[in-house]
Amino acid sequence: MTTVRLPLFPLNTVLFPGLVLPLNVFEERYRAMMRELLKTSEDEPRRFAVVAIRDGHEVAPSAPGLPDPTAVPDRGAAAGFGTDPLRAFHKVGCVADAATIRERPDGTFEVLATGTTRVRLLSVDASGPYLTAELEPVAEEPGDGAGALAEGVLRAFRQYQKRLAGARERSLATGADLPDEPGVVSYLVAAAMMLDTPTRQRLLQAPDTASRLRDELKLLRTETAVIRSLPSLPASDLTRGPTSLN
């Protein structure tokens, strides 16, 4: 299978294909990445890979502090990820296409990217100003019964959304507002649910769409039952998450 080498942006979150990722880029290693991406012609995709951090820190320590005020801060492309960065990351991530990269007067960047395709992490290179990775594409197979499962997931998601928002049925997204393509449904629901990173990662790396939808159906039923006993919470945005601070 053909592999590709791309800049690597580790985050404390999971990016799904089709979902929007806003980034506030202030660390020098990622600023260097964005400056390099800006050299790419506007006619070409400005791509980088996003992987969820398994063991490490999204933002490297930048100053001495407790418990050792004399400690030298971590620096370099792999800062915060140990001596073997490959072990610090989950092995399946997502390629991001940066539609907008805007440099601010202070040299930081505002970035808006969209997840495109899943990739598997094969190796990580920390020799440059930012991490790069060798990646192989992960095919998206439909699996058995994906269409029927998607319908069931959408019904369960509407109930989940209703409980989460504490809103009336008519105030929620209607069937016309939600997709019906099983793969799109599976990623949209995975991103919109209130889940921890390991669970989101499990959904991202599901072997096929049907398996992901089947897992989501169980999660939706469980979470909806739990939310019944909790105070009302605001509805989650279906297409983007909170801005990452790097």
From TrEMBL:
Keywords of this entry: Hydrolase, Protease
All copies of domain Lon N-terminal, residue ranges: 6-224
Keyword Nucleotide-binding among UniProt keywords: no
GO molecular function, one term: peptidase activity
One annotated GO biological process: proteolysis
Protein name: ATP-dependent protease
